[in-house]
Design a protein that fits this description.
Length: 295
């Protein structure tokens, strides 16, 4: 039986809106001082509906905070070498501060090659090897956007990680792996990383003071897998089709929210938790990249 507690639902939309407001204020003063405004270049390949929606949100966010932006669209037939040339051009364009390539890419284009071509000081997604590695340098350049957003969410809710046992389920290059490193390095936490080959997942998740889940399997984390009073951060974002949903689909996290929430002290919903923070981090990184270039 779950002992019902009062939990705090972490509001990523509210925090992301606060961050955007702070950035917009900074951009307004840059403008008043006659400084160059931050400029984000976005590359979109193909016409995948979900990618288009993500890019629309990024463009909208740039407009909201007053950034300049450039959107380059290419057909999904574009050859890799041609795409890489465009990336090099944007790398060399002094007016561009941040550069992102929306994923996924068509199968004939290597994500690794594309990422490797983006200059680290313009890599506002934080995907390059240099930015990934700089997490443990104590002087990170541009932090991977999703884990950066998660850390910011914890910071703004005053959720202490120092000395806590953080369990991260999922170890991908864009979410779980960099988040684990950031929790250990910047968060000074004790970190357990779980992945597909972890045996008896529940025995690990039950020990978590703070549980992070980034797998992409709705319902993976059930109430029996969570300690009473734990903080639960759900990064999973899966589109589930179904006639019962208003638009024919719903966005689901990896955590069974309704059953798990009463056991938690804090928990993120999906949608409205970590998701909005990733775009906020992208904006923070673009501002930082612009400030570093202005220096
Ligand atoms: P991914 O590359 O597929 O990685 C999934 C990770 O989960 C891998 O490390 C995999 O292990 C692990 N895994 C798979 N099955 C597991 C299981 N049964 N138990 C424990 N671990 C398991 O996915 P991703 O790109 O990291 O994304 C994960 C989820 O987060 C997706 O739903 C994605 O949409 C979401 N996401 C959201 C945001 C956001 O802004 N909110 C950003 C990024 C990702 P192996 O390494 O052993 O294969």
């Amino acid at each position: 039986m779950t002992e019902a507690t009062t939990y705090t639902r972490i509001d990523g939309r509210k925090i992301a809106a606060e961050i955007k407001q702070e950035i917009a204020t900074k951009v307004a003063s840059m403008k008043a001082e006659g400084k160059k405004l931050p400029h984000l270049a976005i590359i979109l390949v193909g016409d995948d509906g979900a990618s288009q929606t993500y890019v629309d949100h990024k463009v909208k966010a740039c407009k909201e905070v007053g950034f300049h932006y450039t959107l380059l669209r290419f057909a999904d037939t574009i050859q890799e070498d041609k795409l890489l040339k465009h990336i090099v051009q944007l790398n060399n364009d002094d007016d561009v501060d941040g550069l992102i390539v929306q994923l996924p890419l068509p199968a004939h284009i290597s994500v690794e090659h594309v990422t490797d071509h983006i200059r680290a000081d313009k890599d506002v997604d934080g995907f390059t090897n240099q930015n990934f590695g700089s997490i443990i340098s104590r002087h990170p350049l541009l932090l991977p956007a999703t884990p950066f957003g998660v850390m910011e969410l914890l910071r703004r809710y005053n959720i202490e990680t120092k000395g806590k046992h953080c369990v991260v389920v999922g170890a991908s290059r864009i979410a779980g792996a960099p988040l684990s490193m950031m929790l250990a390095e910047q968060g000074r936490a004790t970190v357990t990383i779980c992945h597909k080959y972890t045996q008896d997942l529940a025995s690990h998740t039950k020990q978590a003071d703070i549980l992070f889940v980034a797998v992409g399997k709705p319902g993976l984390i059930t109430e029996d897998m969570v300690k009473e009073g734990a903080v639960v951060i759900d990064i999973g974002t899966t589109r589930v089709e179904g006639k019962q949903y208003k638009n024919g689909y719903a966005i689901k996290g990896d955590v069974d929210f309704e059953k798990v929430a009463p056991k938690c002290s804090y928990i993120t919903p999906v949608p409205g938790g970590v998701g909005p923070m990733t775009i906020a981090s992208l904006l923070l990184n673009t501002l930082r990249a612009a400030e570093l270039r202005n220096k």
